[in-house]
Sequence to fold (266 residues):
Amino acid sequence: MVKIIFFQAHPDDLEHKCGHLMHFLATESKENNDIRIASMTRGEFGLPGSQYDKFKGHFLAKIRTRELLKAEKIHGIHSEKIDFFGFIDGFVPFNSEFVNTLVDYLNEERPDVIIAPEAIYTWYYHMDHINTGKALFYIIHKKLINFTPILYFYTSLHPNFLFGFKKRNIKNLTYKLIGCYRTQQWLLKYTMLSYRPFSRFAGRKLHGWKYAEPYRRVYFKKSNLENNRQPLIVRIFTHFFSSLPWTKAKYPQNIVLKLKEKRGKK
Ligand SMILES: [Zn+2]
Fold:
């Protein structure tokens, strides 16, 4: 039995980044795998503009949680396999509280494989994503846990592992998954514009497949650290993307304070 934990910052991240790999692991080879989902936030602020302020916070979190559960049912992943960390959308920190929370969680779950948002070499510079990937990398790299799970990043600029899928599965699976997120269609409709060409681009190197999901495996042993090295162009792009203001969500202060207060009381 292999234990695999998929980490995400927000409900819906995994659906269009890891949907095909997840589906394969959860259905076709399910006897061998124990799959969990670790969601750092419930996506409390995932609506554009102040006209939606009245829905942001607890209300939106509840709906997006429901959307997530619905999407995971397609993979046959049940709600008891989904863990929420209670961080606030837009405010996932990279600090000792966050690192310690993840250390405790990993010590309890002891996963063999972790799949998480890319921490460094990415075009997706939402700090919730970056900090989630960064904390997991830091924990394994600094040996804050006494085992070494295999770490893969998604949304990497320079993948070294491709998971192939068929064109028809874009319709049969990806669209079904993202269709569960009714509140996120304002953003997902743009994501989906690039989804097919990106997947095709990733699939061009994979023999026998036209489409693929790209991942980057991160290496931790001294003997294979060299594999983490990135080409110059990737490092330049990283620098460029990290300077873009990526997040479109707006954070009305009154709702932020309310959520923080509630979190503080726990
Ligand atoms: Zn996200």
The beta strands are 2-8, 33-41, 82-87, 113-117, 150-154, 161-165, 211-218.
